[in-house]
Amino acid sequence: MWIRENAEIDEWIEIQKRIVPEFVETLINRYKMLRLIQHHQPIGRRNLANALGMGERIVRREANILKKQGFIEIKAEGMNVTRFGYTSLEMLRSYIHRFKGLNSMEEEVAKKLNIHKVLIVPGSYDEDELVLREIGRVASVYLKSILKNDIVIGITGGQTMAMVAEEMSEDDLKHSNIAVIPARGGLGKNVEKQSNTIAAKIAKKLNASYNLLHMPDNISKELLKSLSEDPNIKEVVDYIQKIGILVFGIGRADKMSVRRGLSEEKINTLKQHGAVAEAFGYYFNKDGEIIQEVNTVGVSLDHYKGLQHIIGAAAGTEKAEAIIAISKLNENLTLVIDEGLAKKILI
Hints:
Layout lengths: L1 H18 L2 H19 L4 H8 L3 H13 L3 E4 L2 E4 L1 H17 L2 H12 L3 E5 L9 H15 L6 E4 L3 H9 L11 E4 L12 H12 L2 E2 L10 H7 L3 H10 L4 E5 L1 E2 H7 L4 H9 L2 E5 L2 E4 L4 E4 L7 H6 L2 E5 L6 H7 L6 E6 H8 L1
Parallel strand pairs: 3-13, 4-5, 4-7, 5-6, 7-12, 12-13
Antiparallel strand pairs: 1-2, 8-9, 9-10, 10-11
Helix pairs in contact: 2-5, 3-4, 6-16, 7-8, 8-9, 12-13, 15-16
């Protein structure tokens, strides 16, 4: 029954596309407008026009239509999404997903990468930075769907993971004894993107406990051994071995090598050997083969390969090679990416 109903919906969508082809562009443009208003409200017409790359007159016309239909309200300080608009946005996300044929694209990407599941967010991060928020939202929703009692969630740092924490809603979850911990040590000076900050934020929204790892990610093995004798640090390092769900961002080798402060000589060596991805203390080539190991604190490669529940998230076409490489490490991976990146992977 469910399969037949979905087939009928897809058939109806195809008929709509043929009878009213201009409907597709109008629907997507108004969806983008609603989404932008939601994230930047209250926002004026001029700022909205600049964000959308549209003329102010066109935006005024479209905004008046959305207001008339009850999706937004327009006040002196700017436009806001109404309660009806919020509800409609949730429905529109699902509809546009089917409208653009992303269900079948998800299956294609999963098959090509030979991984468990792929979730695709409409749009391209290369053209619309708000797509990253959608990736964060989708990843957080999926994470909640696989939660269970007595589970330890590991989360890495970075911009994408920070967005997962930002977009996660606070719900009254019916699970007990959930812990959230940083899956890697700290990297860089941006506190908001540190795994400690992200782990604490997610724990609060899940009403879970958390432990912090007060240790930089790239330290020498000698210093790591010394610091690991500290009871507080040892507790978190031991906790990392209990991670049952891992949520992580996927990094390009060239950018991560710079962030980790590698010398120019080492960076050039990585390039010469075809390194395209960095994860779990290793640099990998496009075939998922190890190019180089680095000193790191957190989830080990062996631990990652044995995990049953993994959520990887990435945005932007530049991440295609890195994703292809990481996907070869564990077929249990669930990947959350944008439409533009999915198309790049399928090329």
